[in-house]
Every structure is written in structure tokens, then in C-alpha cells.
Amino acid sequence: MTVTQLDVDALVTQLTLEEKASLCLGSDFWHTAGVERLGIPKIMVSDGPHGLRAQLNEADHVGLSGSVPATCFPPAAGIASSWNPDLCETVGKALAREARKWGVSVILGPGINMKRSPLCGRNFEYLSEDPWLAGELARAMVDGVQSLGIGTSVKHYAANNQEDDRLRVSAEVDERTLREIYLPAFERVVTKSQPWTVMCAYNKVNGTYSSEHHWLLTEVLRGEWGFAGAVVSDWGAVHDRVAALAAGLDLEMPPDLQRSAPAIVAAVNEGKLPESVLDETVRRMLRLVSASMPALAERGDFDEAEHHALARKAAHESAVLLKNEGGVLPLMPAAGSTVAVIGEFAQTPRYQGAGSSQVNPTRLDIPLDELKAALGDDVTVTFSAGFGVGRTSDDEKLAAEAVEAARAADHVIAYLGLPSTDESEGFDRRHMDLPANQIALLEALAEVNDRLVVVLANGSSVIMSTWQDKAAAILECWLSGQAAGGAAADLLVGRVNPSGKLAETIPVRLQDNTSYLNFPGDSGFVRYGEGIFIGYRGYDATEREVSYPFGFGLSYTTFAISDLEVSQQGSVEGGDLAVDAAVTVTNTGTTEGAEVVQVYVRDVESSVARPIRELKGFAKVWLQPGESQRVSIGLDERSFAFWSVRLGRWAVEGGEFEIAVGSSSRDLAVSETIKIDAPSIAPPLDADSTLQEWLASSPGRSLLGRLASPLFRDTELIKVIGTMPMRTLANFGMGMAHQKLDELLEDLRGAGKKA
Ligand code: BGC
User: Fold this and answer.
1) 473 has which bridge partners?
2) Active-site residue among 234, 422, 428, 490?
3) 234 is an active site residue
4) What tens digit of pLDDT does each residue of 573-619 get?
């Protein structure tokens, strides 16, 4: 079937000014505007990132009203723990099939903001504290969705890292931190996968609303990264439609029909907004509509059971086995034994977060039923709620019943987690603790059973240091979608081997997180004072013990990583540096399983502060018992670069770099130090350069040598005056007068020219 697509250039010449203005706004909560007389249809956009929230009749952006039944896949916090881009791509395709069925052209996701603080209420919707991991998984998801003719909206651009005051707060963040931490995930998705749209954030960045941020929306996104799609506002993020248009924001959602269209028309008529700017936006909107048309013409359907099975597979890989003392898992109850299942979440599962991403699931696994089925009829399974979710009056009674059940049982599994009132879009948490009634229950259970298994359901990380020694095993399932219950059962009985790895660090205390003193800010500002040192970069730099490090996760088998070989091709100077890190990974245990090989890079010596290690590549490898595989992970120039504020670009500083490979950020089995040559990035010497800087450069040293001043040879004195600019030394007449300095500078310029 041939599908009509729009002739964008011709249409731009036929549209009236009013029609052009109308195309820059939605026509209602979920639709763009059409122009009937020219055959331009409306298209529909819908949340969400881990399952469709298509509202065919109702409309809200906080998840209050109903939406069509859709598969609820694991939210980002879960699926990120899979460290599996292929899985993300497959889930992306499934999301696209569901979108096609309902005539939705653009899915509003994935959410790829960095987890700056564990307290962010929306962390369940975000992937990681690491930009490389988040960017790589999001890229795969976008590829999956878009391969079936449905668009994505990568969100929320940029620096939307909290919910408190999110519609107004100004994220005060320096450029290097933006470039190295908060922008790279967006950059990767844009440069690799060209998402059809990018959604701007609500908040301000350094005083300017993201929706009006020319530098973010036009200079960086389009100018530097080559984004060709449309920028969509977050719902209600536009304040001044004309300023937003001039900054590069194409589509205002939902539309302020009363004010925005007339304001655009007036601005063009009054010469305040060049019509060419409007035309560019119109072109981008028409291209978006045009790209949507093939899928709308051939909608198709999806197989609910198949998608549920995929949700289960995704939930398997989302779970992280944090602790498994004495091999308490997988559970292998003898025939005739009793398993006590405890915890309200076993019968009322928590599997997704609240707000705009809330899905109306096609079906829902009940963890208790799933576990019973997995254990079979030879085992007796008892259930006690143990605690009330959000209620506390019955807690003592419920806990006492649970303790009795545990006492009578051979195996005890406690399903704990965060109630939905503790985390949601719209507000941030104040602490990271599990509810007190659950911790009290856990302590009481540990008294009567020393092989307690804890299964967790939570979207943001929780503090475990206060209770983890009471549990023999901890399976962190995050919020992992409608099939979470079945997936947990599969993992508990060993039908599936856990393979998830933490996409965020679990700290010992909230106070150890480097954003602690600056979160969530006040008086309209939040200062990103920790700079580039978020997540493991921060815990490593401040040498904090953590409960479970970034990248960590156990398996029912064991792995060995060995024989690192690093090879280097090309050069920084030639712009084609390519480094390859190859290791052998072996399944040294007795069960089939998967290991995630992680590559971290460290600049051994640097002129700027750099993290102790940064993830720059990874690969998930499935191996049979005894099997080995050679895995090679490629690194490029950017893997070694930092954002030089002085040069206004990425820069590699020549010297030694350590490449460490292992199974978590704090378990790096093998490492090798390589030397990378790169052109000097030291600033040219001038009168503002310090004495130390002059002495550190060979022309500077030789020129100073000519002065024959004892001051410049006195190492003790140099410690004191070495940080003074040459101009200041000349002011004080220390070692030289101004005239002498001028001569040195003249000679320096001459030497530079000759070179
Ligand atoms: C959220 C977005 C969402 C939009 C539409 C906003 O409140 O921040 O992530 O896509 O609503 O529901």
C-alpha cells in the first residue's frame, strides 16, 4: 500500500500565517493541530516510557484518569538494571506495536535524566546515575520504537533532576557538569538514533526556562548534535510562546489556545519574530506528521500474551540479587516442607510508579499465586500480610501473625518495598528508608528464621545498611511491571538465573550522597555544587563505603574475568583514536548465567579534577557452565576526554590512562595502564600565567633562566610565589620589572612564530 506523505516545502508556501501559528501548538491535550483544507492530519502523542498511557477520551498529565489497557513493562529503574540494550530495543518494538494499535504516533519517553539524588521522586522513571549507561539503553529503546514507524520523545531536556518545585526551580549547573553528566545521554540518543522529538524540561537551567533556552534547544541540540526532529514542551512548560519559538521549541503542549497562537501572529506581524523562524518550526512539525502517516495507515494489533511474556523476561533481567548468604537462593524446598510468604506486597504488588507514566495493565501477576505455582503442590505455602501498606494500626497484630507463620515454616520469604505514597512524580522523598513497620517486621522475622529471603519492590533505592545483616538473601526487583510477580517467582526457585546489575549505587547513608547538601535547593534555586561527582563518581571521590556499588549484582553461578589485552589504533591528533579492551569471561560455576563485563577509564594524572573511574563500555554475555568467551569493548577519543572549559570543547590530555575491567565499579578484576599521546592543551603562556606555569613549560623555563634571578631558582620561595601571575610579580618587582616581562613576552611570541 502506498501511503500519502506530506509535501512539506509546498505546504509551507500554502499555509496562512494563522495556520502556521496553529501548527506550533497542540489542538488539545494529546493531539497536534491539523489543517483540514490542506490535508494535514492531527497526530496523537501519549505517555509513556514503559507502557502506553493512551487516553482516548479523558486527558490529564498526572495519571488520574483512565487509559487504554497496555502492557506495563518494567519502569526505567528496573529495565536499566538489565544492562541489556537488546532487551530495551525489543521492549521498544513492543511499545511501538501497542502505539500503532491505538493510533498513537509518538510515545512520550524514555525519561533519561540522571539520578542526581536518590531522593528524586521520579527516579523510578529514570535509568541511571551514569550517563553512558543511560544513553546506551535509551538509544536502544528509541531504535526499537522508531524501527516500527512510531516516534519517541526523549525527556526531560535538561537538568530535570528533582520533583520539588520542578515547574520553576533553576538548576544552577556549570557547563562542564552539564556536558559530562547531564547532557551526554541526550547527546548519545540524538546522535545515534535521531529521536523524532525531544521534550524540554519544566525547570530553568541557569536562570532560563528550558523551554526558552536557545543554547540548549538550538545551539547544542541542533547545532552541535544535529537534531533534526521537533522539540516538544513538557506539559505546561511554556511561559512565553514567542520566546520559546525563537529559542527553538516547536510544539507547545497542551496548547494555550487563547494566548499562544495570537501572540505568534502578532510577533511576526510586528517584526519581532522572523517568519523564517516560524517556517522552520512548521517544517519540523510537518515532517513529524508526515513520518507518522505510514503507521497510521496500517495500524495492526499486538498479542497480549506475547507482550506479557516479554514483560516477564524484562522483569527477570531487571532484578538484582544483592545478597545470597549460604546459597539460600534458589529456593529448593523438600517435598512436604512449608514456605511462609510474608508481606502485603505478595498479594497487592507494587509494580509501577504514580504520575504520567502510570499504565492500565493488560493483566497483573500476583506474586503469591505465581510463587505457589512455581513451587508446586508438594510444598505448603502460607501467607501472612505482616504489615499494612500505608496503615499502621494493625501492624503489631499482623507482624505477630507473620512471626508465628515464619516460626512454623522451613523457608521464609518477605515481600517488602516502598508504598506508592512514598514515591511518585510530583514530589521528592525526604528520606531513603523502608517504612518503619516493615523494618520492625523484618527484625522480628530474623529472630525466628536465620535464612530470611527479602524480595524488594521499590522504584528508588532504599537504605539497607540498617537491616541487611538480618536477611540471608536480598532480591532487589525494583518496580518491574505487570509480570513482576511471575518473574520474581522464576528467580526465587532458580528457573531463571538473576543477571541484573545496579544502575545506581546503594549508599550506606543518604548523607553520603554528594548532592545531600544541595538537594532540593531553596528560594527557587538548586545548586549542583557536587559538579561532575554524582553517583559512584561521588562515592569514589569521597572514599565512601557503600552498601552495594554501581554495577554490582550476584548470580547463581560465578564468573571470572581475565586476560585483559588493550590495543590502540589511530591518534587523538588524527581524530581517529580507537582503543580496544578485550577480556576473557568464563562461567566458573554450575549454572547457565549472564555476566556484565564493565569497562572503566581513569585519567591517571590530569590538570583538572576527574572522577576516579568512569564507565565507558559494557557487554552482557550469556555463558553455559564452564564456557568462556572473548569479549572486546571499543573505546573512542571521547572515552578519555573531559570538557575543557578553557577551550570550550572536549579535550584529551595526553598521558597515562588506566583501563579497568570487572563485574562492578568496585570489583575490577583486571586493569592495564596505557599511554595516549595528544597535543598539549596547556594554555599559551602570557602575563597572566603563573610563575609555576612558566617554569613548567620548556620555553618559559629557558626565558626565565635568562633573567638569572636567584628568586626563580629558590625552590622554597617558588612554593610561595609560584601561584602568582607574572604580571603581579612584575608589579612587585620580584625577579623582573615590567619592561623585562614585556621583552620575555616578545621573545615568546617570536619563538612561537618560528615554531
Ligand atoms: C510529565 C511528562 C509527561 C507529560 C504528559 C508531565 O507532567 O513531566 O513526563 O510526558 O506530563 O503526561
Assistant:
1) 324, 453
2) 234
3) yes
4) 999 999 999 999 999 999 999 999 999 999 999 999 999 999 999 99
